């Protein structure tokens, strides 16, 4: 069942695709609202720490596993750790696809807002109440949200169908530079608005006392994983297509820093715009602390109505948002496609299976914002579990062995010290402290219904869905391990 693997056409193609993977709506849609809801400055501190101790080390680890095995997440864990741990690779794949189901809906929002901008819906003189009304009408009209979810899956599916070099790589080389130019134009305008300085102060004021909140740390680690792609299985999957001489550390550093740069640029656009366009600082503070899912859409739509050629700029910006969403949706689909291809299917059939399933299973998130928020909450934390599994795989294989033999190769431009090994070994501690601390707080906050599996943000909802996935992954462990074909010839830690 082993198939000839596709390859990236160049290192630049791989890096562009990887940065595109990271700089998605996780930066433009998710980062501003999560940072705002968690106090701005203290969140930035915790998120930056998470980048260095969790996200970048994890990206390197995933790249080692993907390059070593030449398989998607399911086969990679079978060969890298041992057959009985195949279920961990299944977990990573399903968590990634769980996010894909609602992420396509979010991309649909960006496509819809692009069409609104092109049609002239954002006219000069509109206020926040009007742009909020547009958002509320759209997100409560299932025929619209489902239609644009369908369009998004169709666009992404077509590119994946074209393959790695002719699809993902070609698209990324156009999308990523375009995205950065458009983001820089948006931040330049936002920072010149009267009152924008208050938004910057909110974003960067340290407020160190808030770092005692477990929620801020959980959200920071979740955002670092969500945004950079750490724990998604993206880099395991994309690394399958890399050439032999790749600088693992250098590539992953570029991914991590590129992602954080994109997030900060977006934060410096959205938060100043909110302060500048709100009727009062109190109104802005309430809006920021609300965690409103539509924060970026509501305020940026209004921002463009204050600009010369605002309709054109709005169209360009929401096109950039759509591009960023697409660049992250592609690897989510590819994680599923690669795993199915490892089981003997060709790319065409595998793509059709994942795209159709993605559309159907994304409909609940398109229908209900509460359902989407729950899935974002549950599988965001699921990424931390995925990271824990990758760390376990590396420890089973030998962390120092991976660092010396797979990362610090003779052709590597960037040599990694023992800090990487220490971070990987501390993953269980990071995970236990952050999630355990938060869990205890969650019980105290919701003493009567913390266990409820159908509450949007309850700990019980996380535990319920995690339990279902683990049971299914364990039940199908051996069947999936036997179904996946042979990877590269490695000595696995059985």
What do these coordinates show?
This protein is mainly alpha-helical and 494 residues long. It has one domain: Orthogonal Bundle (Hydantoin permease). Helices cover 76% and strands 0% of the residues. The protein is built from 21 helices and no strands. The chain has helices at residues 11-22, 25-37, 41-69, 73-80, 86-118, 128-139, 142-162, 164-190, 196-204, 214-228, 234-239, 248-277, 281-289, 295-304, 310-341, 347-367, 369-397, 399-407, 418-445, 459-475, 477-483. Helix 1 packs parallel to helix 12 (248-277) and helix 5 packs antiparallel against helix 15. The longest helix has 33 residues, at 86-118. The protein is globular. 55% of the residues are buried. The model has no long low-confidence stretch (mean pLDDT 85).
Keywords:
globular, Hydantoin permease, 494 residues
Q: What distance lies between the first and last C-alpha atoms, to the nearest angstrom?
A: 22 Å
Number of helices: 21
Q: Class in CATH?
A: Mainly Alpha
Please identify the structural class as seen in this structure. mainly alpha
Uncertain runs are none
Number of strands: 0
Q: Could you say what the CATH architecture is?
A: Orthogonal Bundle
Taking all residues together, what is the mean pLDDT? Answer: 85
> Sheet bearing the most strands, described?
none
Task: Estimate nothing, just give the exact number of structural domains.
Answer: 1
Rg of Cα set: 22 Å
Using the coordinates shown, work out and report the CATH topology. Answer: Hydantoin permease
| Rough outline | globular
Report the sheet-strand fraction: under 5%
Secondary-structure element pattern, one letter each? HHHHHHHHHHHHHHHHHHHHH
Q: Tell me roughly what share of residues is in helical segments.
A: over 70%
């Amino acid at each position: 069942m082993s198939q000839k693997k596709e390859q990236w056409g160049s290192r630049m193609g791989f890096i562009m695709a990887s940065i595109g993977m990271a700089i998605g709506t996780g930066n433009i849609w998710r980062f501003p609202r999560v940072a705002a809801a968690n106090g701005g400055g203290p969140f930035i501190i915790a998120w930056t720490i998470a980048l260095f101790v969790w996200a970048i080390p994890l990206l390197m680890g995933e790249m080692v596993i993907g390059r070593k095995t030449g398989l998607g997440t399911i086969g990679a864990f079978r060969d890298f750790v041992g057959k009985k741990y195949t279920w961990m690779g299944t977990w990573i794949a399903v968590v990634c696809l769980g996010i894909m189901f609602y992420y396509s809906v979010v991309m649909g929002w960006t496509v819809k807002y692009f069409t609104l901008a092109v049609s002239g819906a954002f006219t000069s003189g509109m206020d926040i109440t009007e742009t909020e009304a547009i958002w509320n009408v759209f997100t409560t009209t299932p025929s619209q949200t489902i239609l644009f979810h369908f369009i998004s899956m169709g666009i992404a599916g077509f590119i994946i169908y074209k393959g790695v070099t002719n699809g993902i790589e070609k698209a990324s080389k156009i999308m990523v530079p375009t995205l950065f130019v458009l983001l820089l134009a948006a931040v330049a305008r936002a920072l010149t608005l009267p009152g924008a300085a208050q938004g910057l102060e909110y974003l960067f004021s340290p407020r160190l006392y808030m770092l005692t909140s477990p929620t801020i740390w959980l959200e920071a680690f979740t955002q670092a994983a969500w945004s950079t792609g750490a724990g998604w299985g993206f880099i395991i999957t994309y690394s399958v297509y890399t050439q032999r001489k790749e600088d693992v550390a250098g590539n992953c550093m570029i991914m991590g820093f590129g992602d954080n740069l994109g997030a900060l640029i977006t934060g410096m656009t959205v938060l100043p715009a909110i302060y500048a366009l709100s009727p009062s600082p109190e109104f802005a503070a309430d809006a920021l602390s609300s965690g409103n899912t539509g924060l970026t859409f509501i305020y940026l739509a209004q921002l463009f109505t204050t600009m010369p050629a605002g309709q054109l700029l709005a169209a360009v910006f929401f096109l950039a948002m759509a591009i960023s969403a697409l660049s992250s949706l592609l690897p989510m689909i590819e994680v599923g496609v690669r795993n199915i291809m490892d089981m003997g299917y060709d790319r065409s059939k595998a793509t059709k299976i994942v795209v159709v399933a993605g559309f159907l299973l994304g409909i609940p998130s398109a229908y209900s914002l509460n359902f989407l928020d729950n899935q974002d909450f549950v599988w965001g934390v699921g990424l931390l579990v995925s990271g824990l599994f990758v760390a376990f795989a590396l420890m089973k294989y030998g962390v120092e062995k991976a660092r010396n033999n797979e990362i610090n190769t003779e052709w590597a431009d960037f040599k990694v010290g023992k800090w990487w090994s220490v971070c990987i070994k501390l993953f269980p501690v990071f995970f236990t402290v952050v999630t355990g601390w938060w869990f205890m707080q969650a019980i105290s906050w919701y003493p009567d219904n913390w266990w409820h599996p159908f509450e949007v943000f309850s700990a019980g909802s996380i535990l319920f869905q995690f339990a279902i996935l683990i049971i299914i992954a364990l039940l199908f462990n051996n069947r999936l391990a036997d179904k996946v074909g042979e990877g590269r010839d490695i000595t696995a830690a059985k």
